[in-house]
Design goal:
Strand order of the largest sheet: 2-4-3
Order of helices and strands: HEEHHHEEE
Strand content: 25-35%
Largest sheet: 3 strands, antiparallel
Number of strands: 5
Shape: elongated
Number of helices: 4
Distance between the termini: 14 Å
């Protein structure tokens, strides 16, 4: 909200909607969504990258009960340039 206001917008509506999203495996998610980060890596580096990300995120977004769940949030905003 502050970024919009500081850019000359009047915020009329702002809603944060948590949308936890199950994913089959964090490695597959990275293949799809980390292209910009991993595009210049060698295949070996990509394997290391995915392995390290898996370890970092395992404590945060993985449980035996639910598996991998992305911490996705939808924002709904109505702002008018003033």
């Amino acid at each position: 909200e502050n970024i919009l206001k500081s850019s000359g917008f009047k915020v009329e509506y702002l809603e944060r909607i948590p949308r936890p999203t199950p994913i089959d495996d964090i490695a597959h998610w990275l293949d799809i969504f980390a292209n910009g980060i991993a595009s210049n890596l060698t295949e070996e580096q990509k394997v290391v990258f995915k392995s390290e990300v898996r370890e970092i995120l395992k404590e945060k977004i993985y449980t035996k009960e639910h598996g991998w769940v992305a911490d996705y949030v939808r924002l709904r905003v109505r702002a008018v340039k003033v």
